[in-house]
């Protein structure tokens, strides 16, 4: 049977976050299954062969744990019970994915609090980027065994959108068990019409989404639309498609989507730079020399310790600080890889000396170019 949505081209992408829900991994509530996971793994492998990167956000831990503990009542949904089941099932989720790949599969457990805290945000991003650099497949899930507020409707859909922004993904892909967004729930409305392109998420679009879907997962179409909205705000488009269909996954491997595309609100870089430009700071300032000014403005470089002259204020790793020239003019703003005390200790020194001076290293840059915005008009060309 042909998918309800017609094939259409994908935006160009090199790095994607792919979210796979419990409905695809634990079909019929009987524990983890390769029934649909195999097709998804073949798509991931094809992406890897094409030189692309995938970060997988995978559900299924609670369902896997429930299948392994037969004494657990099927109706037990209390927080403590679900946390225990998640702890039991996490290893099964990673093992499921590892069986499909020769490359290493890495488990990364996060909570929303990890991503709200700027220092932990930077640590999580650095870890994920390093895993991709090593050729591993990161498998991300919420740290359900310690989360309190996160085990609720739509957790992994929204987590996937946050992870997409975290790793600067070109696209967010959400694999579900229906063909995409419809004007109404196609399971209960025979006259539902497929929606193939969503330029902007409006109240009318939100109204099209129904409530929770399967009894296995925690999210429904509403949370997928919500996640698409978060990704769009970060400049990342979202693709919603049926991960149970081998033909849809084969089309996806050749950059054709049978599903719904949610467009981004401007470019990814624009969204990030806008946030850096306008997010409140704490008064911290990093004074840099003329060479650093030229490198930041003319070459789009990162800020290195060798260009730092002085540091004003008290701020921590992950805070936003103003970067000023010798006259005190703010020329840029950025997320700091080191706190004020640390930057004072390495100011004027070479990047390779950081670890010797501090006893540890978060990297060679004080502010990475991806975390920095040059203020227009602050520096002459």
From TrEMBL:
It catalyses: L-glutamate + ATP = L-glutamyl 5-phosphate + ADP. Pfam families: AA_kinase (PF00696), PUA (PF01472). The keyword Hydrolase does not apply. Pathway: Amino-acid biosynthesis; L-proline biosynthesis; L-glutamate 5-semialdehyde from L-glutamate: step 1/2. It is found in: Cytoplasm. Substrate binds at residues 59, 144, 156. Its main location: cytoplasm. PROSITE patterns: GLUTAMATE_5_KINASE, PUA. InterPro entries: AceGlu_kinase-like_sf, Asp/Glu/Uridylate_kinase, G5K_ProB, Glu/AcGlu_kinase, Glu_5kinase, Glu_5kinase/COase_Synthase, Glutamate_5-kinase_CS, PUA. Residues 284-367 form the PUA domain. Its EC number is 2.7.2.11. ATP binds at residues 19, 176-177, 218-224. It comes from the Bacteria. Keywords: Amino-acid biosynthesis, ATP-binding, Cytoplasm, Kinase, Nucleotide-binding, Proline biosynthesis, Transferase. GO terms for molecular function: glutamate 5-kinase activity. NCBIfam families: proB (TIGR01027). Catalyzes the transfer of a phosphate group to glutamate to form L-glutamate 5-phosphate. HAMAP family: ProB. PANTHER family: GLUTAMATE 5-KINASE (PTHR43654), ISOPENTENYL PHOSPHATE KINASE (PTHR43654:SF1). Belongs to the glutamate 5-kinase family. This is Glutamate 5-kinase. The lineage of its organism: Bacteria, Pseudomonadati, Pseudomonadota, Gammaproteobacteria, Lysobacterales. The gene is proB.
